[in-house]
Amino acid sequence: MIRQYRPAIGDWIFEFPAGTLEDKENILECAKRELAEEVQLSADHWQSLGELFPVPGFCDEIQHLFLAKDLTSCSGEQDDDEIIDVVTMTQSEFLAKVANDEIKDAKTLASFLKIQAKDLL
Questions:
Q1: What is the reported pLDDT for 121?
Q2: Measured on CA atoms in the order 64, 4, 106, 10, is the torsion positive or negative?
Q3: What pLDDT does 76 receive?
Q4: Is 5 helix (H, G, I), strand (E, B) or coil?
Q5: What is the CATH number of the domain that holds 90?
Q6: Which ranges in 1-121 belong to alpha helices (H)?
Q7: Count of structural domains within the chain
Q8: What letter would DSSP give residue 54?
Q9: Exposed/middle/buried for 21, CB within 10 Å: 0-12, 13-18, 19+?
Q10: Domain containing 111: what range?
Q11: Three-state SS for 85?
Q12: Residue 85 pLDDT class (50, 70, 90 cuts)
């Protein structure tokens, strides 16, 4: 998990690492790059969790979700405008933060639900 400052809401939020797909970039390569940039990790195994439409009443954005497993340390360079703290938490701690309204990021909540529904925890 990361705890990231989001200027649009003027607050810090807990979320899974994520990022923007560069022009003509492969979706999985984008996920690998963002994991390295945001949390300095690489993964030996990647599983697609599918797609999300985060705001279909407003735009046609698609978010592609992945589960990264068998993590190892690596080097990645954060974007200049990112203010990120890496946070480790158990599944129980995550669920407690959801219940206490401390995790509000939609892609993070949907990703966790998809992981649970696919019995990947």
A1: 86
A2: negative
A3: 83
A4: strand
A5: 3.90.79.10
A6: 27-39, 91-99, 106-117
A7: 1
A8: S
A9: middle
A10: 2-117
A11: strand
A12: very high
